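Quick note —
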Amino acid sequence: MPGGWTMSMMWMPMSGCTWTESAAVFLLAWLAMMVAMMLPSALPTQLNLRQPSNQQGNFAVLASAAASGYFFVWMLIGAVVYAIGVAYALATMRLDWLSRLTPALSGMMLIIAGLFQFTHWKISALRRCRAPDCGTLRDAGTLSNGWRYGFKQGMFCCICCTAPMLALLVLGAMDLAVMAVIAAVITIEKLLPYPERTVRIFGFIALLAGTFMLVWPAIA
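Predicted structure written out below.
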């Protein structure tokens, strides 16, 4: 593309498919990616849940409802990402100046991601993700309450993962190596001690990477 960058084909309709079919394929791939990326950090918390043996079956159903609510949030995020990605891809194909501006915009997105790591929203949501109110799930009682619990937890997770997700979209949403790195970042933030320190480290890295992307064309 003009500007020296390569556009991912995930924003284009697949051969022989309509836009609706392509969107469905993207959302299925996005959901699979979110499950693979979020489970390493969420599984230890789920394994630590305890429930009386005579209620194990009911609790398993509630946990499944919570999981569906949690990943429903990520599906909504995926739909928004796809709509914006497609609109931007089509715009860059029509507007040469926008295509040439894309590397700089990518650098700015990484800088925004880095700055977000230092916000109160990030730390507050991360604390909620690290120590979810498991008692609320145990006391949910009904499938709808369990689903709402998962939906609420998914919202906190989305806020917590805003910066890593921005970095993922900039660096390559369907690149397995990038996915593995971002998944590792999310897992480290949620599981390792001293989360504030870890968050700031990744924030500085994103700021440096974004700044490099902005200034590199001028010095290359």
